[in-house]
Amino acid sequence: MAERRGMNAYVSNAAIQYYDEIIQSFSPREVATLINKAVDRKSTLGRRVASGGSCRRNFRDVLGLIDIASIPNSVKADYDRFIQ
User: Fold this and answer.
1) pLDDT per residue as tens digits for the range 1-12
2) Host domain of residue 33
3) Number of separate domains in the chain
4) Are the C-beta atoms of residues 5 and 59 closer than 8 Å to each other?
5) Burial annotation 12-21 (CB, 10 A radius, 16+ → b, else e)
């Protein structure tokens, strides 16, 4: 099992490429939902990303899979902050 970047704790190595493909095919609405959840410290994802360390770094890796043209203007500033 390999640590999965910023999402559930673990998935098998064989599944990672499929998760990556799913993330790469996110619609702008799905991208906005993901980023909004990461900003919301009341959500599990938001708390994990806010705690820093490997969760934040792994989340940044996940965001790197998303086509920049798919990022809605409404979450672009938050996206840029996470990518830094």
Assistant:
1) 334 454 555 667
2) 2-83
3) 1
4) yes
5) eeeeeeebee
